[in-house]
């Protein structure tokens, strides 16, 4: 048995080094991507790390809010290939497929509106106004803040309609929060893509959890107010939610806590394994019992609903209203308290280094 155990131990170590997706590997794939860019493209993409724009984000279409950096759709095919290597290094398979599917969903959304127009449900003028919002698969912008390095601070952002990704790194540690994702439509209901749901589990697990509570627990968890028109911690709204609302996990049974963990992991597990494990271990250290879950709105799909998961170290917000109040437009964000944009990592770096 000893040789088998030795082999398994070596395989585990080798697997970790091959697939751990460490800070060194993130720096490496980013540099490989940058090597494919021309001097002009490098100038377009590069910004100073201390530029305040690094911490600005929005989920709005680029037709409403322009983004800094280089437009993804203008990259060469080789650059696109290498940028996807960056994404697959940062994210797990589920996270990578969510990000790329959200990008593709913009093309589908254009098809949905074209079909809606052809069915006489919106005017020619209305369709023209929608087209001015300028959403499509290529309209996402990549910005580099500083120079990729394992030790010195730097960052990489990807922004566009319903995506805001912010990588921050220093001293071999990195952060990917705030991480915003969204879908419109949440469920495609017309065209050949009818039935497609890119962020299905963020919705489904939320309904599973709220409907697994007893009637008394539901009363505690449900807030008696109108479903917010957007996540409360959106760029245009208040930056903080200081109070805890809803039901505390300590007051849930084992099965209900399990559903809560499923829902949390749906967000955390978008990161590659090492990043997800680090984030979840931090959450467990603070204790699942100290997490609060609150709900607003309908307990059934296709109706407006909202939830917030609020713990000592993190916050998840999810909102699904839709322009027609049909519960078909998701905005969701995962934040780390004191850790967004690498705040804690950078604080430790600057305290330990002379700058």
Automatic annotation (TrEMBL):
Residues 1-20 form the signal peptide. It comes from the Bacteria. It holds the Pfam family DUF3500. Keywords: Signal. PANTHER family: DUF3500 DOMAIN-CONTAINING PROTEIN (PTHR37489). This is DUF3500 domain-containing protein.
